[in-house]
Design goal:
One of its GO terms (biological process) is lipoprotein biosynthetic process. With 486 residues, the protein is α/β, with parallel strands linked by helices. The protein has 16 helices and twelve strands. The protein folds into two domains: 226 residues, no CATH class; 247 residues, Carbon-nitrogen hydrolase (Nitrilase/N-carbamoyl-D-aminoacid amidohydrolase), CATH 3.60.110.
Length: 486
């Protein structure tokens, strides 16, 4: 195949992969596109294989996370040419990881029997690194395509999202090996059936169990437009909107989204706080709090139980450029106009909050993308609550993609996940990853659900990503030894 055609095919395949994720959910598609990628690099040396993987990654991320441009230009105030360039460079960085995986695969030149599992190992190690280096960005890791009803969802509570990604990549490797290396059809079919059956069997296991009484929870979605949220004259509208919603949707636990009121918590009218507090047995609200770090006052992005000084969670995993500025990048503040973009960092491990008779592990905004970071709080918790403000990304795929990520977190951790957001997608998710109910995005409403907390440990809660990472490293070592002997 001519290089131009090969690279064009790789780009298109990468872009098509995004349809495997929400809102489309064609979960088999990333398996097929990864198989196509392996077919394209068959027989290539490491350098052209890396370029092919890089172009595939560009297609994947430009199609899947280009909504970053919305937050930079429309809401961050960056000039459009610069925001487009910044978005492209960001996606170009993300594409380095699939490029490295393909280069390593061709450099090791594994045997036909080892090639599929080596590709799965390299692909998952690349995705794990992408979600770890420089604070990490694991968005659109291939395992996120496998929420229910994908048959691979059963692997998630055991091995996590990266475990499901490993199995999906292994299936892609088997399909590619049948085409490119003439691996026996019977062997390929038996392997695929075994992998699918394993997911189905694991999916039938209930790793955690309900505990305590049934409680009612109301999740409030104020739908305050991001461009208006921080305008002082619009503050009464925000406060009245959430007070009206809280009064219309009382419950045992009432949850307001991230920074529901754009004021430091201590500056909010106490009469308003008391009025909202009266609508629930407990009320949890996203709020900006003030604390002391190294002798100076700092803002924190927090979730605060109204009327409870002892119940607060402060965000630990901050968003680069949105909530803190990385070293050497202070100059970017001149290009962006993001309110309160210099937050303090909460403690890495914070105990669950005692709310409405439940132990609630809170995470804020895109913290729920980092599954392993939620383990410490989730072990003792009976409920998971995420408060978000995804209005920063407008009417884009970011919202359904974020909801799908939350589905996988509930499945990994074996707990209900409750999401209260400003503009969407506000939802309640069962421990098996299925959405109980959700509000339409960009609507002002409340969502009331009845549910129970859950207790017990999934295998992922016990061991995190360690099993799939150790397996991947072991496969890599075997392949390296084979290569050295060969």
């Amino acid at each position: 195949m001519k290089p131009a055609l090969r690279l064009t095919t790789a780009f298109v395949a990468g872009a098509l992969s995004v349809a495997g994720f929400a809102p489309f959910g064609v979960f088999v598609l990333p398996v097929l596109t990864l198989a196509t990628l392996l077919w394209l690099v068959d027989g290539l040396s490491p350098r052209p294989a890396a370029l092919t993987g890089y172009v595939f990654g560009l297609g994947w991320f430009l199609a899947g996370v280009s909504w970053v441009n919305v937050s930079l230009s429309q809401f961050g105030g960056m000039p459009l040419p610069l925001s487009l360039l910044a978005t492209f460079l960001f996606c170009a960085y993300l594409a380095l990881f699939p490029a490295a995986a393909l280069a390593a695969l061709r450099a090791l030149a594994p045997s036909p029997r080892l090639a599929p599992v080596l590709f799965a190992a390299l692909w998952v190690l690349g995705e794990w690194l992408r979600g770890t280096l420089f604070t990490g960005f694991p968005w659109l890791a291939s395992g996120y395509a496998h929420a229910a009803p994908s048959p691979l969802a059963g692997y998630v509570p055991v091995f996590g999202v990266h475990g499901a990604g490993f199995v999906a990549a292994l299936m892609a490797g088997l399909l590619a090996a049948f085409v490119t290396q003439r691996l026996a059809l019977r062997q390929v079919l038996l392997s695929l059936v075994a992998l699918l059956a394993g997911g189905a069997l694991l999916g039938a296991v209930s790793w955690t169990t309900p505990t305590g009484r049934t409680l009612t929870v109301s999740l409030l979605q104020g739908n305050i437009e991001q461009s208006m949220k921080w305008v002082p004259e619009r503050l009464p509208e925000s406060m009245n909107a959430y007070l009206d919603l809280a009064r219309a949707w009382p419950a045992d636990l009432v949850v307001l989204p991230e920074t529901a009121v754009p004021l430091p918590y201590d500056e909010i009218d106490p009469r308003w706080l008391e009025a909202v507090r009266a609508t629930g047995r407990d009320v949890l609200m996203g709020a900006v709090t003030v604390g002391e770090v190294d002798g100076r006052a700092r803002y924190f992005n927090s979730a605060r139980a109204l009327g409870r000084d002892d119940a607060q969670y402060s965000k630990a995993h901050l968003v680069p450029f949105g909530e803190f500025t990385p070293p050497l990048f202070a100059w970017t503040l001149k290009l962006l106009s993001i309110p309160m973009s210099d937050f303090g960092r909460g403690a890495a491990v914070q105990p669950p909050l005692e709310l409405a008779g439940e132990k609630v592990a809170v995470n804020i905004c895109y913290e729920d993308v980092f599954g392993e970071e939620l383990i410490a709080g989730a072990r003792e918790a009976t409920l998971l609550v995420n408060v978000s403000n995804t209005a920063w990304f407008g009417d884009s795929w970011a919202q359904p993609q974020h909801l799908q990520i939350a589905q996988l977190r509930a499945l990994e951790l074996g707990r209900p996940m409750l999401r209260a957001t400003n503009t969407g997608m506000t939802a309640a998710i069962q421990p098996d990853g299925r959405v109980i109910a959700a509000l339409p995005p960009f609507s002002r409403a409340g969502l009331r659900v009845e549910l129970q907390g859950y207790q017990g440990l999934t295998p992922f809660l016990r061991w995190g990503n360690a099993p799939v990472l150790l397996l991947s490293l072991a496969v890599l070592i075997v392949a390296a030894v084979q290569r050295k002997k060969g």
